[in-house]
Input
Amino acid sequence: MTALSCAVHDSATMLRRNLRHVQRYPSMTLSLIALPVIFLLLFVYVFGGTLGAGLGAGLEPGSGHGAYVNFVAPGIIMLTVAGAAIATAVSVATDMTEGIIARFRTMAISRASVLTGHVLASVIEMVLAAAVVTAVAVATGFRPNATLLGWLAAAGLIGLFALAISWLSVALGLVARSPESASNTPMPLMVLPFLGSGFVPVASMPLALRWFADYQPFSPVITTLRGLLVGGPIGHNATLAIAWGVAIAVAGYLWARRLYNRDPAGSVR
Amino acid sequence: MTGSKAAITVRGLRKSFDGHVVLDDIDLNVADASVFALLGPNGAGKTTMVHILSTLITADGGQIRVAGHDPVADPDAVRAAIGLTGQYSAVDKYLTGEENLILMADLRRLGRAAGRKRTAELLEQFDLTDAARRPTATYSGGMRRRLDLAMTLVGDPRIIFLDEPTTGLDPRSRRAMWQIVRDLVATGVTVFLTTQYLEEADQLASQIALLDHGRLIAEGSPAELKRLVPGGHVVLRFADPAGITSALGVLHAGSADYDALTLQLPGDGSIGSLRTLLARLDESAIDIAELSVHTPDLDDVFLTLTGRSAQEAKA
Output
């Protein structure tokens, strides 16, 4: 077999292993879906009336939460992707404490396959969770008017970010000293949709925060998704979103690979 | 293979962690199709040695050949020839025993049919067929250890590293593990094992190397190594401290422990020496409550070679 077909074969084997873990231990995955759904319900039904009314003039009184769900759904979808990073980092950190990783390291298999198995399983989990959350959003009044092409573009962008966040969270899981600390390091990712265009228009923020909110990775993605799904200006955000996605994916991959190739000092006694 | 008789050769191997020397100028040879035991107390550097030879970590210096290949220059050639069963369980606890073995078969690229066949064989051989469909989290320590070794054997490696394979096992499981190792060597496999127990090395190995603070302090066959030890000791226990004092007065030897009411005497515990000892005590009408004979163990070997007991060597 060539190096590439070995890598594909071993990564597929590792993916099957990771998916079986999800199947045997589904509570982590379910909590990945539950958290954004709770946020969705909270923001649409509790804050939505006021926030929706504040979004723009000319809304009928009482129609605030209907308008707000269309605004907030892309942010909640990206919150789902960011939240899943915690599960991925914990799962990688837990794996690294297990003796089986030493076994994998001493087998003639594709070196990166342990990591790609985690990344692929994580992308699948994130995309499925995003799909479920989108469906719940539709049930609460989210009314996307996208064309098929728009849906495909949105799915592609979510997939790219799922890949990027997955590689980053694999690296965070490798750098963590324990599964407990691995559950904390990706937390800031979950704050980013709030400090961006996810929940309120960036224009309503103080100037310094606004500058950060405009250019941090999640804002261009959320704004682009909003434009694709319910209409609205996209502008340079699409380019910015793709650039961020590719940059995070490449940086996360290189960082994860470097961490994994170190001598595993932690297992040496 | 090149047809050379050595499965593993090591020259001048060195390894330090954060300035602390863990392995210092190690030379050793492991013959093909033999059992080699690396014997030493906790912290001697045994596991580090196994990790270097199995490509898990890299040495700081020295020449190493495992199955004729250099673990640094060509790690995948080494990995294709070896199997490692580490000190800590290397089974996937979310998978069943059968799924763990199939995972190994897939990674060894045996193909679906051959992988299933090998899995069934190994489950049978290691007495795990009944537990095959249960998650390994429910396995006992002995079962997990057997599965661990079965996973190592999936690709029929020519050289197997066993890092303290029986530590924590009950005597029955320990004996079962010994039999497995003997069966493996009979099929031409080379086994490199580490252990804290002289008895285990004695039972299994044709060659033993003694490791202490990162240095090899002795190497040889079990018989050669035991000749380095002047025999074991005899422990006499008395009913009261006065017994110890009178025995010391007659024997002029031994180390007394007045709290435990014991007197420890050097000796090999042979019938003749015991008969003489008892006769001398009888002549002076000294009663002993209990007599026990201790054959040489790792502590005695260590005491002889380093002047410290293995317990002290751990510090």
Remarks:
- Chain A touches chain B through 27 residues (CB under 8 Å).
- Residues 64-96 of chain A form the longest helix (33 residues).
- The two ends of chain A are 36 Å apart (CA to CA).
